[in-house]
TrEMBL record, chain A:
The keyword Membrane applies. One of its GO terms (molecular function) is ABC-type transporter activity. The chain crosses the membrane at residues 20-40, 52-74, 95-122, 128-151, 158-177, 206-226. This is ABC transporter permease. Keywords: Membrane, Transmembrane, Transmembrane helix. The lineage of its organism: Bacteria, Bacillati, Actinomycetota, Actinomycetes, Kitasatosporales. The keyword Protease does not apply. GO terms for cellular component: plasma membrane.
TrEMBL record, chain B:
Gene3D superfamilies: P-loop containing nucleotide triphosphate hydrolases (3.40.50.300). The lineage of its organism: Bacteria, Bacillati, Actinomycetota, Actinomycetes, Kitasatosporales. The keyword Transport applies. GO terms for molecular function: ATP binding; ATP hydrolysis activity. Keywords: ATP-binding, Nucleotide-binding, Transport. It holds the Pfam family ABC_tran. Residues 4-228 form the ABC transporter domain. This is ABC transporter ATP-binding protein. PROSITE patterns: ABC_TRANSPORTER_1, ABC_TRANSPORTER_2.
Amino acid sequence: MYDPTVARLTYRALLGRRRAGILFLLPGLLLVIATVVRALHGVDDQVAADLLGGFALATMVPLIGVIAGTGAIGPEIDDGSIVYLLSKPVKRWTIITTKLIVAIAVTMAFSAVPTLIAGFILNGNGQQVAVAYMVAALVASIAYSALFLLLGTVSRHAVVIGLVYALVWEALFGSLIEGARTLSVQQWALSLAEKVTGDGMIRSDVALPTAVTLLVAVTVGATWFAGYKLRRLTLAGEE
Amino acid sequence: MSTLHIDHVSRWFGNVVAVNDITMSIGPGVTGLLGPNGAGKSTLINMMGGFLDPSTGTVTLDGTPVWRNESVYRSIGVVPEREAMYDFLTGREFVVANAELQGLGAKEAQRALATVEMEYAQDRKIATYSKGMRQRVKMASALVHEPAVLLLDEPFNGMDPRQRMQLMELLRRMGAEGRTVLFSSHILEEVEQLASHIEVIVAGRHAASGDFRRIRRLMTDRPHRYLVRSSDDRALAAALIADPSTAGIEVDAAEGGLRIQAVDFGRFTELLPRVAREHGIRLLTVSPSDESLESVFSYLVAA
């Protein structure tokens, strides 16, 4: 299920690439904004919830998920270096699950942790807002990583598709169109956050049982399909 | 000792047939897979390495299918043609990672690095390596588990003569140890120097198979075409056609010369100047008109 060598290669590839800059940039930006807002507004639970919901969970988490999820496998498939993993007596399922674990860990580290810190900066975790959004970010990290890892396995344009999904679907439609919200990782994660925080600070359109079911289904389904695709991955020659 | 069996294998991509009904066995020793660019060599090697499923037919290693069977990689080492590696690692880190994925460790990695003589640069990032150095580190990564079968796709591409000699020596040694070594190349001389056994692939088809002397003979015994201009083309033509080494002569008015088809290369090259001298004809141009490797290959396919 987990291969430490595959994990090491994956995280070094993830953090060693130029794209990794975004992994540091976005959380940095969140912390700067949180500090500025706190300085200008003082402590305000609603402002804290709005910022963490609107920027951290709606924008930062999916973007980090795109970078980590697609980056964990996409470039290796594109440039063909995945052949060094595939030509080993290592189960292809193990390759996928290991890469998923690394993608989840990286997404959590670069999204959930800064979200918690930003929450503390904004209102000192008043009404459990910081913890609630951290929980939402943790849960969303899992689903996004699985989804975008699958995307990296099936498409050469994984980053672009991932960005469109993250920005257009999750951030735009997810906030505006009601039907889209049911099919939004963000809303599922919010459903959990709703339970953590105090009354009415966080609202999700999806009921908790539905949210949990969908989260599990998407994560397991995407991972299974990614493993299925990798098992059938063919390396055509240059000719 | 291991043998790869390719049994009636075809592979097509959409409407394009890349490999067309090939059957061959690759046994211990060094085998060269020879063919022009685009002949289907990489497709075939990818199928031998289990990275591509045959559209029809089977590829087996000592009776076990290689497609979707990760356990064959305990006995197969692969040196891919593509350049991409984990450039952000040092050579040593890369080979150690490959060893670990084989269930081995740093000791085996170090031995493989020594085998390819890359210890001196093992702590440099792969990104800084020359093409030949990359090739050698790739070799080391394929050798860590001392595989019975070694598959190399165009291993000499981009190597300088010295690096080429070194790699050839290494592959020769591995073949002599009883390993099954298969490498592809589009350069006849390269294959000839190294492989005792040659498989020729042209346009996706298995064109010829055998030891290099037989292949060489096939290639030199094929009809050779020449364009010849002389002081008296028709007299020369009449004198040449009397000899069995000449199969056909055409007067090419546009070129202002003769198009001669010779069937016995050695005899014809001796005949032409002699006949010209005997008849007092001056030879102005003698040029082979189809010496490209591709035309040699297309002859082999037709044969």
